[in-house]
Amino acid sequence: MIEVAPSVIGGSLRAPPSKSYSHRALAISLLCERRSEIEGISKSRDVAATLKAITDMGAKVELKEGSGTLNVIVDPPERPNVPDDVIDCGGSGTTIRFFAAISTLTEEGYTVLTGNESLRRRPMGPIIEAIRGLGGWATSTRMNGLPPLVVRGGGLKGGYVEMDGSISSQFFSGLMIASTMFLEGVRLKPIGKLVSKPYVEMTKELLARGGAIVELGEEISVEPIRPRRIEFRVPGDYGLAAPLMALASITGGSIRVEGLERSLPQADSLVLELLGEFGVQVRECDDQVEVEGRPRNGVRVDLRDAPDLLPVACVLAASVEDTSEIRGVAHARVKESDRIGNMVLELSKMGVSAQELEDGIMITGGKLRGGVRLNPHGDHRIFMALVALAAAADERCVIEDEDCVSDSYPNFLEDSMRLGLSVKFLSKGS
């Protein structure tokens, strides 16, 4: 539990490494023909789950400490092994959805995948049905489409399958990666509009670097060509830098974030456009982004392809005396928490008018009332958003469960304090 005092944020820092690229590089390295070298992966708890999953399935991994990151050398097995124990994915939806598909590739036997309480509430029906549609076998142990999952190995022939695109693109990315070892590859047809499509583009980018052949259109097709190797430096994460950008903006400060590579697809690079729509000054130069100035106006924005920016958009909207509509994020209700319902609840504690919509939130902001106790609901992105709001409030705020931020950005509080955030760590009984 922490107490955050009103603060002004300013300075510069290097963006934390991309969690999404770290997951993908590690998962693909498990299926490569030869040794892979990945530089600068995230040290987050979610990525640690993927790192353990590839070792559980037979990869030999050598780790070298970097500055806040890890450099990894991965020697892949001939094919993924059935783990000796269950694959514990912690709170990582990416890990369980990727490795549900990868588990079909084991020579024989069954793989069990589970996670923490939050993960066991997240829907897995689309990947279960897709595996069955491709001739494999997978089930939810509770028969409700939720983890734990059991997946039978033996390999898949592949072919054509349709899958619900409204919940998560992670199901598609997992099958794209695994299908490089299917006998016929795969053709995936989204049912409805595919949400978070830039994440599929990220998967294509890394598969192509390994020599796989992927085509994106109305269908996603992957040829049955096993990746050769991955040699990749993980870029900075726009989505994890976004709360710091918002934090600097709404407290009247400024920030320069380095290590953001615009040439690689990232859904959350949309944060720069989002900030600009709120009237914040944004300057880009090479791999640096500078953010300065308070939000000046409300916006109407669709975050269908970047739902992880919802809490940041709420922060910006709450700080202006205007009305904003954030739409297109119905799938944010089935993330680490119900981000729509929980952001409305926490904003209301701070005197902000926030209304749940079917696919988003309507917010009328203004003065942020402090002196309240805030709850991130175990959600790392909500926690970072609440820290930003608390720093801009008129009084100190208490925020619970700071440990949840380690799921994605373990150094978030440390970095924020170096930029000027005033934080006091409290005992649980305080």
Structure explained in plain terms:
Helix 3 (93-102) links the parallel strand 6 (87-88) and strand 7 (110-114). The chain is globular. It has 430 residues and is an alpha/beta fold. The chain starts with a strand and ends in a 5-residue tail after the last strand. It is built from 12 helices and 24 strands. The strands form 6 sheets. It has a 4-stranded mixed sheet with strand order 22-23-1-24, with helices on one face. The protein has a 4-stranded mixed sheet with strand order 2-15-17-16, with helices on one face. The protein has helices at 19-31, 45-56, 93-102, 125-133, 170-178, 197-209, 238-250, 270-277, 310-318, 339-349, 380-391, 412-418, and strands at 2-5, 10-14, 36-41, 60-65, 70-75, 87-88, 110-114, 138-140, 149-152, 159-164, 186-191, 214-216, 220-222, 231-233, 254-258, 281-285, 288-292, 300-302, 323-327, 353-357, 360-364, 373-374, 397-399, 422-425.
